């Protein structure tokens, strides 16, 4: 799985104590309007996560379900899952695809949701947004950490969808989390005679350990 440093950055990057402007329907008449909307979107994600996931009275089940809801609302989950599987997606059967999507979602929830219980006050500062190509918007932010530690650069890659956005990747200090996960999954598959079943077996183990 991801390194502890990447893990900390990813989970903490949801959180911010800054005042957030409510999300509205985003104008798409210019890049400037779209980029402004993308910055608001990331701010709203941080606000929602801070309000819903850091309550000490939440049970494990409750926190995981709240995280699952946030993930589905803010992330292009199926797009990410397919991209992470890479070229192997086309080689899988429909049954394998369904199980993979289910296991991948469970793994993300189990891996990240519980960590919000240990939130220690990190702040996400949204800096700027820029349009890349026809469909990507990069939102640059800084994760301000506690105890005098250096801030971490976090870049969110978004795509417009209807009147809002969806996150398709998160880059921490220049390293794509999607690519990192893709390399890991590919390695598991190669070690299992290039069979996706080998990855599914590994994901089943990880999910069972976390439940």
Supply the key terms:
Nuclear Transport Factor 2, Chain: A, 5-stranded antiparallel sheet, alpha+beta, 5 strands, disordered N terminus, single chain
Brief digest:
50% of the residues lie in helices and 19% in strands. The protein is α+β, with helices and mostly antiparallel strands. It has one domain (4-210): Nuclear Transport Factor 2, Chain: A (Roll), CATH 3.10.450.
Overview of the molecule:
The protein is an alpha+beta fold and 211 residues long. It has one domain (4-210): Nuclear Transport Factor 2, Chain: A. It is built from seven helices and five strands. The protein has helices at 4-12, 31-53, 60-74, 77-85, 94-112, 177-191, 196-210; strands at residues 123-132, 136-144, 152-161, 164-172, 175-176. It has a five-stranded antiparallel beta sheet with strand order 1-2-3-4-5. Strand 3 and strand 4 form a beta hairpin. The two termini are 17 Å apart.
Shape: globular
Total separate domains:
1
Helix fraction bin: 40-55%
Q: Could you list the spans in which at least 5 consecutive residues all have pLDDT below 50?
A: 1-9, 15-28
- How far apart lie the N and C ends? 17 Å
Strand runs, count:
5
CATH-scheme architecture: Roll
Radius of gyration: 17 Å
Q: H/E order of the elements?
A: HHHHHEEEEEHH
């Amino acid at each position: 799985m991801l390194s502890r440093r990447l893990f900390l950055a990813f989970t903490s990057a949801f959180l911010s104590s800054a005042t957030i402007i409510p999300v509205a329907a985003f104008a798409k008449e210019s890049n400037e309007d779209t980029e402004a909307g993308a910055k608001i979107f990331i701010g709203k994600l941080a606000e929602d996560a801070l309000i819903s996931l850091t309550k000490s009275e939440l049970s494990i089940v409750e926190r995981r379900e709240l995280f699952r809801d946030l993930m589905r609302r803010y992330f292009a989950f199926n797009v990410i899952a397919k991209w992470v599987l890479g070229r192997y997606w086309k080689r899988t059967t429909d049954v394998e695809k369904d199980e993979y999507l289910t296991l991948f979602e469970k793994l993300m929830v189990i891996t990240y949701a519980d960590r919000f219980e240990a939130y220690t006050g990190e702040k996400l500062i949204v800096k700027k947004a820029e349009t890349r190509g026809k469909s990507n918007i990069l939102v640059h932010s800084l994760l301000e950490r506690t105890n005098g530690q250096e801030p971490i650069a976090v870049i969110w890659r978004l795509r417009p969808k209807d009147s809002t956005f969806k996150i398709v990747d998160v880059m921490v200090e220049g390293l794509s989390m999607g690519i990192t996960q893709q390399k890991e999954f590919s390695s598991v598959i190669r070690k299992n005679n290039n069979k996706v079943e080998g990855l599914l077996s590994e994901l089943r183990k990880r999910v069972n350990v976390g439940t």
